[in-house]
Prior knowledge:
The protein is α/β, with parallel strands linked by helices. It contains 9 helices and 5 strands, in the order H-H-E-H-E-H-H-E-H-E-H-E-H-H. The chain has helices at residues 8-33, 36-51, 63-80, 97-106, 114-120, 137-149, 162-166, 178-208, 218-221; strands at 55-60, 89-92, 126-131, 152-157, 169-172. The longest helix is centred in the C-terminal third of the chain and has 31 residues, at 178-208. GO terms for molecular function: carbohydrate derivative binding. Residues 46-202 form the SIS domain.
Amino acid sequence: MKIAASAEPNESLREIRGSVHDYVGDLRGALDQLPTGDVAEFIAELTDPLLEGRRVFVAGNGGSATTASHMAADLSAAVDRHRGIGAGHIHCLSDSVARITAIANDFSYDDVFSLQLRSLAAEGDVLVLISISGTSRNVLLAAEAARKIGVRVLAMVGRESDLSRLSDRALAMGAGDYGIGEDLCLAVNHMAARVLRRTRAVTVAEAARPPAPPLPSPSAAR
């Protein structure tokens, strides 16, 4: 007996296509609404300290932890192009499973970033915190610890939140969907990496210029 082919696969594919179409539309809309002026100022506060030889720390939870790790990798690769001209370093506080689980076990998961920051950071460094909710306890404690040390706090959040209020500069993505918000955070990282790569080209060109001749001393001018 011949069994009729089910229509379910086609219906399932239509649903998938609809979801893909909706997501692309939502992402396009979120990108169109991204405040590019605010993004540029945020990136300047992130990249300038690196070019001045200071350290930048990055942290986040869950998907934002992978974004933090991705940011550390991308910006480190871009900064490596500046070695020899006093470039700084970027560290991801979410990367070490051993360190995070040790702190969580011995103290509290709330302290996994703040304790690392207290032992590693110094006044003048920068901390970038990524949290779409802006309410994660360990991220808030990291911001508080940073402010006590004299570390400038930058945050990428979904909307106005406790974290944005604790930060020196917060970039609100304005996306209600967590996935879209995380996509935008990663896009900002890629923008920052591009800025560093372009800055490298300018820096090399300036370094290649011959030094200006010294001004004559007052006695020689007589």
